[in-house]
Design brief:
The chain is α/β, with parallel strands linked by helices. The protein has 2 domains: 152 residues, Nitrogenase molybdenum iron protein domain (Rossmann fold, 3-Layer(aba) Sandwich); 158 residues, Nitrogenase molybdenum iron protein domain (Rossmann fold), CATH 3.40.50.1980. Helices cover 37% and strands 12% of the residues. The protein has 13 helices and 11 strands. The protein has a 4-stranded parallel beta sheet. It starts with a strand and ends in a 10-residue tail after the last helix.
């Protein structure tokens, strides 16, 4: 018997050997604890991720997710995998008991454990809880400690940045740059933690986000920084005079998010944000938050992913980091 992170009592086997991540953040969590715990992927890793993840990942079935867009988990697949337990994503948009989440598991008799992952801070308790659940308690504590330390490091380093000193940020999520997310969305949490002022002030309408805005509004905002999720955006915007007139482009402050093997900030929102917030904090406030990006990236990838980055891998990984400070 265990009490999950939704406060539900769940009967589980004495020893869990086959946990299933029912959504990408949960599969990422299992992978960091031990790649051998991963039974299946919700979405495949991109071919560019070869060398950044365990080769076994390319042999695993793709099962979809219990929430979000795309392929949904189906009972037949679950019966084939025979997991001991399904780890389900608990967040502000989904309440325990939802048929959308639980129906496939109810029909197969697979117990469900909810794991709260609404914020980066939630990963501290989640690593410790799931680590204990699957027999990786010490590993879970080790990873939780890094998340805690990274949050403390950024918070203390930027403690002197008041509201009036915050840099203004536009989050461009698509190739055309005109989809973004509210400042209160979990999709933009990393920007907030790095003390960036997200110019799109609102409450999110859906879990998936990527709300549309028009170019005129972006020009009125005239952000000091643009954080871009799609490298195609930076190439297209380079040929568009409207984007080129913005402060972020004039001062070469367009940051393209590194994404191998998982995105550093979002989609999926994972433990990678512990590195991502430090990258952003340094890009936004280099004087207040000095940071050796290459050294910390090597350490982080070895700790969380078990990868000793070569110089070539590091160059490939950070090639999308187009952060150039205008005052340098």
């Amino acid at each position: 018997m265990t009490t999950d992170m939704a406060g539900r009592e769940v009967i589980l086997p004495d020893h869990i050997h086959r946990p299933l991540g029912a959504a990408p953040p949960l599969t990422a969590l299992l992978y960091a604890l031990d790649p051998e715990l991963v039974l299946a992927l919700n979405i495949p890793f991109s071919p560019a991720s070869d060398g950044f993840v365990d080769p076994r990942m390319s042999t695993l079935p793709i099962i979809g997710s219990s929430m979000g867009h795309g392929r949904q988990v189906n009972p037949e697949t679950l019966l084939q995998l025979q997991p001991d337990v399904a780890l389900v994503w608990l967040n502000r948009f989904m309440s325990p008991g939802s048929d959308v989440i639980e129906k496939p598991f109810r029909t197969t008799g697979i117990p469900i454990v909810y794991v709260k992952l609404d914020t980066l801070e939630d990963w501290i308790a989640a690593f410790e809880y799931v680590g204990s659940l699957v027999g990786r308690a010490e590993r879970g504590k080790q990873l939780a400690a890094y998340i805690r330390q990274s949050l403390q490091r950024v918070s203390s380093g930027l403690a002197g940045i008041g509201n009036k000193q915050q840099v203004t940020v536009y989050y461009a999520e698509t190739a055309d740059g005109l989809a973004t997310d509210c400042h209160t969305s979990f999709h933009t949490e990393a920007i907030n933690l790095a003390h960036g002022y997200n110019l799109y002030r609102c409450q999110p309408k859906t879990m998936m986000g990527q709300e549309r805005v028009d170019m005129e509004q972006v020009m009125l905002w005239n952000p000091q920084y643009i954080v871009a999720q799609d490298s195609m955006f930076t190439r297209r915007a380079a040929a568009d005079k409207r984007w080129q007139r913005l402060s972020a482009f004039l001062n070469q402050r367009v940051l393209t998010v590194p994404h191998l093997p998982m995105n550093w900030l979002d989609r999926p929102p994972s433990f990678m944000r512990a590195l991502g917030i430090q990258w952003l904090a340094n890009a936004f406030y280099p004087q207040q938050f000095p940071f050796n990006l290459k050294e910390e990236t090597r350490y982080f990838y070895q700790l969380f992913l078990g990868v000793d980055l070569t110089d070539q891998q590091l160059a490939i990984l950070l090639d999308s980091d187009q952060a150039i400070k205008g005052d340098e």
